[in-house]
Amino acid sequence: MTPPDLARTGLTPQEYAWICEQLHRPPNRLELGMFGVMWSEHCCYKNSKPFLRQLPTQGAQVVVGPGENAGVVDLGGVYLAFKVESHNHPSAVEPFQGAATGVGGILRDIFTLGARPIALLNSLRFGDLNVPRNRALLTGVVAGISHYGNCVGVPTVGGEVYCDPVYNGNPLVNVMALGVLSTPQVMPSAARGVGNPVVYVGATTGRDGIGGASFASAELAEDTQAQRPAVQVGDPFLEKCLIEACLTAFATGAVVACQDMGAAGLTCATSEMAAKGGVGIRLDLDAIPVRETGMHPLEFMLSESQERMLLVVARGREAEVLPIFHRWGLEAVIAGEVIAEPEVQIIYKQQVVAQIPAPALTEHTPIYEREILPEPPLAVQTHWQWQPEALPPATPAGILGRSWNDIVLTLFDQPNLGSKRWIYRQYDQQVQNNTAILPGMADAAVVRVRGHLGVAATMDGNGRWVWLDPERGAMAMVAEAARNLSCVGAEPLAVTDNLNFGSPEKPEIYWQLAMACRGLATACRALGTPVTGGNVSLYNETQGQAIYPTPVVGMVGRVADIRRRCTMQWQVGQCLYLLGIPWGQDSPMVGLGGSEYLVAIHGLVTGRPPAVDLAQEQRVQRICRTGIAQGWVQAAHDVSDGGVLIALAEMAIAGDCGVQITINVPLETRWDEFLFAEGGSRIWVTVAPEYRSVWESYLTEELPGAWGFWGMTGGDALVIQTAHDPIVNLPVAAMRQAWANCFPRRLEAQTPSPA
């Protein structure tokens, strides 16, 4: 027999039966609510865990892998904690607070380990910006990110933004944080020591965010305003106090374990700490500081009020810890104790109101291994049959009566290719005074860690490619992330990922998830970048319409000497080279399938993304890094969205300097493919003339047949021509104007409220 309110918990009748089996009795209403949040996809990964097991998680550089609040890697005597999390559904309902609390939550994952946060990045997706609601969602999300990050004093140093109608009403807000530890020892989250007090610290508990984990594991309703109570409210100034108080308390040695109260609040913190330690926790709700009166036990346990932590403190040392939090103006009370029985006991008004084995909430959860489609869906196979020959004829003069000059300017006016300065100028990029490369200057962010040692970080994803071919798209995404790090001179180390998909209960979406995870695993293994943790966000659908499958990779790399960091800003008189598949060479690694050009100019989302040669990718990236470390390479930029020509134009804009290139290609060249094809593990680099000889000797030996010299930088225009025909002749100033005005012209008019 199932309770009448089962649907409100997100649990199925079968899951209810499993709960009864584990408890040997029916759960009461409070216990059922606790199971509802802990057995949600957001907390237990019941549909995705089988695929996550195939990801590589070990490596010499990995200090802490999956299982703790964040991963940790060794930078070389300094240890970096990093992780990515999503706050998609809350941001769709209340964009400012949804995004702001996403920042607060990921920061807590970092300093819970004892790491001091040093940087933030984000990966954002929005719908068509011609739709007022999507513009309002974007402005609200950006305002929330900037408010929280700026106030808490952690720089936002990089990220990515894409827009597509498939994200209408269902934005994606993925936030990544980095923190530094001086030792490889982290603050554990496993409770231990029977009799040790459990201490509640931080903000008071209210009714905001109740059931947030379940809300994040369900399709968005048409009336999103009715879901506002599931969205948390953050206070960045209080979080700053919490950071300092926690790090000070950890330094005393009196804190045994720590867990932040993010998704599922007290329920998650108590059950995970207990289960990981093989012990139990007894929690007295009457001791919990509250900001509202009349709260019921279920509200206490499901509240996701922000800026709260749960500590286990060594018995007898409470007086060393509690005053630290009081000095910072924070709540700090003994609210329970560690017990021998491996269960979560909840006390309210001196009565036991919930008693659940901790493993039942965290380990003995449902895992669904559904049948994977034996072959790609018919629609995908149809897209794979598309060929560029289906497009109108393209000549040296242009296509569809439009010149290539006009095509380039049109592409730069698209949100996916235009400047994101309107967004990142709202973020404090230099607080803490360690940002070595500012947003917009290079393919990845670089932050000083200690002395001349630095860390590079990037976030990358391409939902369109993953939709067209999940395995290839995911492989390409990992390759691009590593390539972005290599372009600033960083050695790629490790990955944190965020898997944003629709409902796994639909066969085609379950297939997407399976193939994308296979691609991630293959690429991470080949490139030596193990996955140290991440997040899964499923059920990203609105009224039955799923988003593109959008896995996002956050990758970090070691910069041995930030004085040798590299940007995309070339200068006058430098030699220009393309590394990777030669420009104009026919190859399955290069193509127009799924390209920005196809979408923006022809309105087509079709084709098959190019294959990825991971061995070639490794070679090209290693050579780029070596060139930077030796001081030969002066500027570097990878070829990605928009293809070879757009990458060249971006370097010209960054360096405020043109280039003239004369090409020799067959008359039957497919000109749009030549200019805008994507893929190919390609990187543009410039080299000072005095290094040309040694550089070309190195390339001849290490990358035979996969590089080319294309000219010298200079002038005030980007010029591409054959011996007989001009192809592109665009002043750098004209390109910059189209590129720079992309977001301002769409967003600087008054934007209505998303409500």
Report on this structure.
By secondary structure, the chain is α+β, with helices and mostly antiparallel strands. Among the domains are: 1-39 and 187-365, Alpha-Beta Complex (Phosphoribosyl-aminoimidazole Synthetase, Chain A, domain 2); 373-418 and 566-748, Phosphoribosyl-aminoimidazole Synthetase, Chain A, domain 2 (Alpha-Beta Complex), CATH 3.90.650.10. Helices cover 35% and strands 24% of the residues. The protein has 27 helices and 32 strands. β12 and β13 (351-357) form a beta hairpin. It is globular and about 90 Å long. The relative contact order is 0.13.
Which SSEs are present, and which pair or pack?
Blueprint: H1 6-9, H2 13-23, H3 29-38, H4 41-44, H5 49-52, E1 62-64, E2 71-74, E3 79-86, H6 88-93, H7 95-111, E4 116-126, H8 132-152, E5 156-163, E6 172-181, E7 197-202, H9 212-215, H10 236-251, E8 255-260, H11 265-277, E9 280-284, H12 297-302, E10 308-313, H13 318-327, E11 331-339, E12 343-348, E13 351-357, H14 358-362, H15 378-384, E14 394-395, E15 398-399, H16 404-412, H17 421-424, E16 435-437, E17 445-450, E18 453-460, H18 463-468, H19 470-487, E19 491-500, H20 507-527, E20 531-537, E21 541-542, E22 545-546, E23 550-559, E24 575-579, E25 590-591, H21 596-602, H22 614-629, E26 633-638, H23 643-655, E27 659-662, H24 671-676, E28 678-679, E29 683-687, H25 692-702, E30 707-713, E31 717-721, E32 726-731, H26 732-740, H27 742-747
Parallel strand pairs: 4-5, 9-12, 19-20, 27-31
Antiparallel strand pairs: 1-2, 2-3, 3-6, 4-6, 7-10, 7-11, 8-10, 9-11, 12-13, 14-15, 16-17, 17-18, 18-23, 19-23, 21-22, 24-29, 24-30, 25-28, 26-29, 27-30, 31-32
Helix pairs in contact: 7-8, 7-10, 8-10, 10-13, 16-26, 19-20, 19-22
